[in-house]
Amino acid sequence: METKIYKLDHHAIDHEIIKKAAAIIREGELAAFPTETVYGLGADALRPEAAKKIYAAKGRPSDNPLIVHIAKWQDLLYIAKDVPKEAAKLAKAFWPGPLTMIVMKNEKVPYETTGGMDTVAVRMPSHPVALELIRESGCLIAAPSANASGRPSPTLAEHVAEDLSGRIPIILDGGEVGIGIESTIIDLTEETPLILRPGYITQEMLEEVIGNVRIDPGIIAEDSVIKPKAPGMKYRHYAPKADLKIVDGTEYAVISMINALTKEQQEQNKKVGVIGTDETAALYRGDLILSVGSREDEDEIARHMYRILREFDESGVDVIFSESFSTPRIGQAIMNRLLKAAGHQVLMVQQNNGGRKIV
Ligand code: TXA
Ligand code: MG
C-alpha cells in the first residue's frame, strides 16, 4: 500500500486534505494525524473491523485498549454508561487537552476497541488538525500512538513514516508536536480517581479540580513487582537497541561518573552515547552526545526525549548513559518513560565519595 503524506499548516489548515483523511476514516481505514501530545493512528472507534486494523498495522497486542478521541462533550455521554461527576469538572478544566479519562462503556463501544474491557478511555485533543479530522469524519476516532509496537511514540510525521510506511494509506504532517509525551490517564471508575499514566497534567493540577487523586503504584515500581492497571503500561514499551542506564545524583557527580563509565566502556571498544542537556553536553566525552534541551525548560525536555531515543537507535552505539530528569512538574512523566526505556537501571552517585550503588 502506498502511504501518502500531506503537510498541513496549523494556522491555515487546508480543508481539502482534512476531507481526504476523514473519508478514509469513514471507510473504515486508518489515518495518522498529529495531536498535541504525540501522533495518533486513527480509525472509526465504533467499528470492530476498523479498530482491528490498528492492531494489525502497529503489531500491537490485542489486549491493549485504545483511547477514543472525541471533539465534543456529548460524544462522551454517547459512549459512557455512567458518567461520574468528576468527569464534567475535569473536562471543563482540561479539555480539549492532554488528559484521558476512563469511564464505564456502554454497548456502542465494541470490545475490539477496549481490548475486551468494560471501561473505555476517552480524550478530547486540542490540536486543531485532530479536532477538525474528528469533526469532519463524523466519527469517534480510536487512536493509539502512531508508532510500531515497541518503538518510541512519534513526535514528528517522519517517525510515523519510519514505522508505518506501506501499512497505512495516509499521514497528516503537522510538524513537531507541542508536548512530546502521551496524555495523562485518569481512571474515574475507582473510588478514588487513579492516575494510570503520568503526563503533562499532573496529580496536583487534577487535585485542584476534584480533590484527592491517587497514583497507580504499578507505574512507579519496576514492571515485575506490581502490575500497572493500564494494560499498555505493563509492556516494556520501548527498549533502545543499546543498553541504557540512568545516572542520578548532583550535577557534578553525574558528569564525572558518566565520563568515568564512558572511558571504561571505550576501553572495551564499545561505542558510547550520552543524553545530556544544553548546560552539560559540552562536558561529556562519549561517541555521540545529544542534548535533550535546557534544564531551564522542562517542556523542551519532554518534547525532545522520544526523538533523541530514536536517534540513538540509528547511531549504532552500544551503551547509553543518561542524566536523570526528575524535574518538578512533568518530571514524573518524563522519568516514567525514561525508566521504562532503561528497564529501571539507575546508578545513584554521591558527590562525597563518588561511590555508586544500583537501586
Ligand atoms: O496522548 C495520547 O494519549 C496518545 C495520543 C495519540 O492521543 N495516545 C496514546 O495511546 O498514547 P496509546 O494507545 O499509545 O496508549 C493508551 C494507553 C495504554 O497504556 C492502554 O493500556 C491504556 O491507555 N488504556 C486504554 N484504555 C484503557 C482502559 N479502558 N483501561 C485501562 N487502561 C486503558
Ligand atoms: Mg503508545
Give an overview in words:
By secondary structure, the protein is α/β, with parallel strands linked by helices. The protein contains ten helices and 17 strands. Strands 1-8-2-3-7-4-6-5-9-10-11 form an eleven-stranded mixed β-sheet, with helices on both faces. Bound molecules: threonylcarbamoyladenylate (TXA) and magnesium ion (MG). Magnesium ion binds next to loops. The site of threonylcarbamoyladenylate has 29 residues, from strand 5 and strand 6.
List strands and helices in order, with pairings:
Elements: E1 4-7, H1 15-26, E2 31-33, E3 40-44, H2 48-58, E4 67-69, H3 73-79, H4 85-94, E5 99-104, E6 119-123, H5 128-137, E7 141-142, H6 157-164, E8 170-173, E9 184-187, E10 194-197, H7 203-210, E11 214-215, E12 243-249, H8 251-267, E13 272-276, E14 288-291, H9 298-315, E15 319-323, H10 331-341, E16 346-349, E17 356-358
Parallel strand pairs: 1-8, 2-8, 4-6, 5-9, 10-11, 12-15, 12-16, 13-14, 13-15
Antiparallel strand pairs: 2-3, 3-7, 4-7, 5-6, 9-10, 16-17
The chain binds threonylcarbamoyladenylate and magnesium ion (MG).
The site of threonylcarbamoyladenylate (TXA) has 29 residues, from strand 5 and strand 6.
